[in-house]
Amino acid sequence: MKPMTLNRTIRLSVRELPDGRFALAGFNESDMNIPVGRLKEILFFSHFRSFLGLDATADPDAVILTPREAVEALGGGFPLVSFVGASDHDGVLLQNLMGAAEIWNSPGLPRIAGADGGELNFTDDEVTEGTKAVLENAFRELLADGGIGTDRLKDVIEFRRTETEDAAIGETLPFRIAVRLSEPEESHDEWMLETVLVNKRGGTHWTPAARKTVLHPAESLPKKWKEFADPVAAMQDRIAALLGDGEGADRMPGSFISEPLEDAQVRRFLAEDLPVLQSLGIDVIIPAWLRDAAERKVRVRATTSAGSSGTARLDDALDFNWSFSLGGEEIPAEHFRRLVEEKREFIRAGEDWFRLDAAWLARIREMMEEAERGGLTVKDLLFRDLEEELGLAADVSEDEDDDDDPLFAFSLQQSLKEAVGRIRSKEGIPSAPVPAGLHATLRPYQKDGFDWLVFMRENGFGAILADDMGLGKTVQLIAYLLHLHETEGPGHGPSLIICPTSVIGNWQRELARFAPGLPVLVHYGQSRLKDESLDDGLGRIGNGLVLTTYGTFMQDSEALSEFEWASVTLDEAQNIKNMQTKQSRAIRKLHGRQHIALTGTPVENRLAELWAIFDFIHKGYLGRFASFQEEFINPIEKDGSEPRKQKLRAKIAPFLLRRTKSDPELMLNLPDKLEENEYVPLTEEQAALYESYIRETKAGLMETEGFRRKGIILKMLSRLKQLCNHPSLFLKEPFSEPADLIIRSKKLERIIELTAEIAESGEQVLIFTQYIGMGELIRHCLSGLHGIEAPFLTGSMPKTSRDRLVEDFQNGEFPVFILSLKAGGTGLNLTGANHVLHADRWWNPAVENQATDRAYRIGQERFVHVRKFVTIGTVEEKIDRMIAEKAALSSELIQSGAWITDLTESELDDLFTIG
């Protein structure tokens, strides 16, 4: 008989698909397309894992192969066929596949040196990068099919490497070599993991007697099977090498595996070793009930009470009454403790087996011991969220159907429910007397906020006051600080407020206005107190207040962190939202007997920011950030999970007070319009330019008279107002990057911050300015920093464009509308806005009011918040004060604005001096 030779060549077109699979189309010698069904038969001629190609994917034009299918099929294809590439490109891809198939199917994988860190290493440099990639993907697919991590790739490679001619005889053995896991017998606690021989004909299991398991198979096998001792011994060693945690490590080489396992080892075997063994084709026999037992646990009921007087207080210790059952049968508490101590995970109850969650049981035991020591209080129900820690929170009635019982049932005494409910709902908070030194009348909702802050302090809680912009967070906090000053002695030390530089002036003015009797130390600027002088300054203010900025705090964080403050408050607390920055980490290390955060942004929707703020007010309350991200951020922000939202709301509710202007109950207590000044400081650059300009022009002013004098005054005022807006307007510089521009002007920085917050909250704002340059500057920064495109209406805009912009704004097409004061001051209806910002002052109240009334007019149904920006110590603040002082004069004189040019020499001298 002539030897069989290759007599057919198939040209293959090979395409690599985006998902890593390969599409193969075949052509015969006549360049005729080979039907896909016939090509599958050829490729999968000896591929039994896919049932000779029945499971393989195909489309009308090609056979689709995964990397693993490709290397297995091409390594053992049809014996009378050879493959070549249909083109040069196809040839390269085919060579990669064939090279990988040759290595994959070589006994012992001689060309693979090993696998470190989930990547293959090769013994020679002839293996192409394409071949390496195919092989690595094939092994990853093998691991993924078995649910195995890449950390086990090395074990898989070593198992494949130990293939020998003796091991290959396994196909002709009269038995299969399998691994069996057996549950403990009645009188034992240990499981048994062993290798068994399964008769291919009858399916019976054979394993040597216990005394012979330590012997080589040549001595332990039955006489009829002794000829197979070497391949059996080789396979024992190969399987033992795959077992982790030491199973099989102490056995004699070649001997049968026979290892007793504890519950924890069984769990590890099922989770880690079982998938590896199965993926390599090794039979594993486990008790069928294990698949069901994973869902069964001990049922626990905890009835909790506190306080003997019937009224639960936050510091009362909780009394627990525990009960346990398994499969409907009650378990004595001592028996439960023994289960936990023995770390049992699998136990028998009657004829049934149960798998226990050892970590969960240990947590219950820990809670029991802590409760017995009196270490759990009513307050812990909020801080620790005990219901959530222990399982499913529920109030369970005694007659409830046992079949539907949760794993953990938590029942609260009525007075305890009321104490916890009071904090969560914020209803029934005790009223605190308004401080005598408060020069303000608190609106009802502001009094509620003040009462809540006092209540939270008295019970040792931090707090987040997150009222909407314009609802008066500042006055609520000032009332609270005055309460501390009047009720706690000087020995309690001062409180600390950290705020953005752009609002420190506002805080100074509001403190002086609402709490003139509160000692305040402003820790800011080059002349601020340091070292011993700082200590002396703190001593002088007693239990007063230190006011500083985020930037200054970072410069002096080491000194300021040494004190224990009566309270620490962060204004605009979203400044610490990036928890990895030095500033955020330093602030979260501050020591205060109470930590308070003020923010007008909806922190419930900024979850990373929420975590950082809570880590400040109660460190660790929301857990590690990685865990918080996995449990809340990803499900909520990526998937919009409503159950996770509800769970998070419930968790943060006790410590967060947020009221909005849309709340109908609050609207009854708000004015229709709130006008206030927003005070901002000069930067060092602005202050230097301001003083220099005054020196240069003041002498000439004093030497002139009449109209020329008035003209110089008006020019100086205009130039100084532009300088207060931004140095680049004063210097007539072109605009640079927005991030560089805002650090040169606290006014611009604050305008951009406020505008972005308003837009993000879904509201609309009008921004008025006298200067085209300022309007363009605001547009430039809003677009570059926040992606907000804000139209700018000026006097040169055609009427059609102007009308279209007004209509679009009223329809909510864009949130921010910048207007020249002259062009937009009259004749427009812009009631879509409920915020108005005056970037610079006209110093004619009538003109400013006309501009404000673009939003505050008939048709406006919402509260309108008007802010007028005033730069501290400059002509802006001084003229604003003069207007207030001259209010007793005729309104006609004040509104004309002409009075400014008629000021006396001494008034002008004061006007043009910083301070």
UniProtKB/TrEMBL annotation:
GO molecular function term, any single one: ATP binding
Keyword Disulfide bond among UniProt keywords: no
Sorted UniProt keywords: ATP-binding, Helicase, Hydrolase, Nucleotide-binding
Positions of the Helicase C-terminal domain: 747-912
CDD domains in alphabetical order: DEXQc_arch_SWI2_SNF2 (cd18012), SF2_C_SNF (cd18793)
Helicase ATP-binding domain segment(s): 454-620
Keyword Membrane: no
Superkingdom in the source lineage: Bacteria
One matching Pfam family: SNF2-rel_dom
InterPro entries: DUF3670, Helicase_ATP-bd, Helicase_C-like, P-loop_NTPase, SNF2-like_sf, SNF2/RAD54-like_C, SNF2_N
Protein name, entry field: Helicase conserved C-terminal domain-containing protein
Organism expressing this protein natively: Edaphobacillus lindanitolerans
Lineage of the organism: Bacteria, Bacillati, Bacillota, Bacilli, Bacillales
